[in-house]
Amino acid sequence: MNEKQFLAEYDKRQYDSPLVTVDAVMFTYHEECLKVLLVERSNHPDQGKWGLPGGFVDLERDSTLEDTVQRKLKEKTGIEPPYLEQLQSIGNAKRDKRGWSVTIAYTALMAYQTCEAHIATVTDAQWLALDVTSQMDLAFDHQAIIGLARERMRQKALYSIVPAYALPEAFTLPELQHLHEVLIGKSLQKKSFRRRIEQAELLIDTGEKRSEGGRPAALYRMKQASGAYTFVRNLED
Which of 43, 57, 77, 139 has the fewest CB atoms within 10 Å, measured from its CB? Predict the structure, then answer.
C-alpha cells in the first residue's frame, strides 16, 4: 500500500481523540490597572461561570490555531488584537468535565479604547480588574491560565515594551512607566526608565501633548518593530 492509498482509507474516527480548544488571556490597561477580558458561559459545563474567551477549532473555517483564537477574540471585541502570543498547551483528563481535553492558551494585548464601544454591546463579555478576577470561581482551569499569562507579561515588562500594546495608539511616558510598574510589581526610577526608552529609540514623538493634572505630557506611539526589541538588562536594573 502506498501513502496515497493509506490516506484514502484512513479513518480518524477509529481512534479516541481529546477535545481541542483555544483560550485567550486578553489584557488591557484601564483606570490605572491591568484588566482581563472574561465571558459568561451560556452552556454546560460550568454554565453561568465566567471564563476566558475561546472555543473549539472550526475545521471548515480555521486553517491554524491562530485563526481560531483571532476569530474568537474578534467575536467578543470587534477587532483583532495587535499583539498575540502562544502561551502554553495544557491537557489532562480533569480540566474539562466532558472528558480528556487540551487547550492551547494565548496571551493577547489590546487597548481598552479600541474595543470599548463593541464590548458595551456584548452582554456576556466584560473587562475586569485582575484583583477582582483572582477572587472569582472561574470556569475550568482558567484561573491558573490567567496566572501563567500574568507571569509571562511580567517577564515581557522587564525586558521589552510589549505591554504598550495594551495602551491607546498614542500614550505618554508616565502611562507606559506605570503600566510596567503594575506588571513588574514595583516602582521604577523615572529618569532611568525614560533614558532607557529614549536610548533604544523605540517610540515616535507624535508632536502632540495631553494634560495629566499638571503640565502637558508629550504623546508617543510605538515604532513598527518596537515590540520585538529586548533590553540587554532588565528595566529594574
Answer: 43
